[in-house]
Structures are given as structure tokens and as C-alpha cells.
Amino acid sequence: MSMSETVNSYLLNHNVQYELVHHPISYSCRETARAAHVNEDHIAKAVIVKDAKGYAMVVLAGSDSIKMHALQEEVDRDFELAKEAELKTLFSDCQTGAIPPFGQAYGLETYLDERLNSLANIYFEAGDHENLVHVYGDEFHELFKGVRHGHFSH
What we know:
The chain is α/β, with parallel strands linked by helices. The protein has a single domain, classed as YbaK protein (Alpha-Beta Complex). The protein is built from five helices and eight strands; from the N terminus they run H-E-H-E-E-H-E-H-E-E-E-H-E. It has helices at 5-13, 29-36, 68-75, 84-90, 137-143; strands spanning 19-22, 43-51, 54-61, 80-81, 109-113, 121-125, 131-136, 148-150. Strands 1, 2, 3, 4, 5, 6, 7 and 8 form an eight-stranded mixed β-sheet that branches. The longest helix is centred in the N-terminal third of the chain and has 9 residues, at 5-13. The radius of gyration is 14 Å and the shape is globular. The chain starts with a helix and ends with a strand.
């Protein structure tokens, strides 16, 4: 595999310049950062949550954890973490655990953590366990216009 077709199309449709960064196979954000020689704080990762209304994506810095209470309070929803088994149908063109941070490309409501707003370079999963996508921060943030921003991590 390499880049998910959904993300590739999404980036092309928005005229985003990107670089594919190949790295040895890895299965966690920390491993990926080491394997690709990038700062874990510069990786945007996707966390999938759900409630009675459906699924949503929260995009956080790679080294951060979701602050569920802050998210629930900010958006007034009773979210819980989605189970990994549920994600295969939502992200059918991605390997399990390698979800790109563009919920909007997959029809999911998306929330962006404010911590990512100051980065000049951002990396994210391409949809497999051997590639990251590198984009400039201004282009990354342009893709998140219209999504809710907040402080959802610690």
C-alpha cells in the first residue's frame, strides 16, 4: 500500500503540495517518529470517538493524549473512544492503526486541537505503516478551515 486513495484525492483536489516520507514499518506514533526521523509533536494523529449521533475525528499532536472531558464539554456531546474493530469500515482504504487525520475526507465531523496551529511542518499517516505525508503548516491549516478548533489534549 502507500497513500490512501481518499487522502491522495483530497490533497490533489485542494491543490496541496506534499512529500511522501517512507520509513521502516512502525505501529505507534512514537515508533513512526523515530523511524521517520521527525519530531513526534509534528505528527498529526487521528483519534476516533463516537456517541449516539455517530463517529467523529479529533486531530491531535502525536505526543498528546485526548482529554475526553474537555472535548465533551467543548462540543456538548457524550463521546467515548471508538473500538479499533469499528474503524475498518470507516477507513476501508487504510491499514488498521494508520488513519490519516482528515475526517472531513471520510465524511466525519472533525475537531482540530489548537496545539497543531503553530507548526510550520506537519506529518501524518498516509494510510499504511510505512509512509508519512509531509505538508507545510499553512497548507495543512487551510484544509481545516471550517472545522472546530479547541484544546482537546494534554
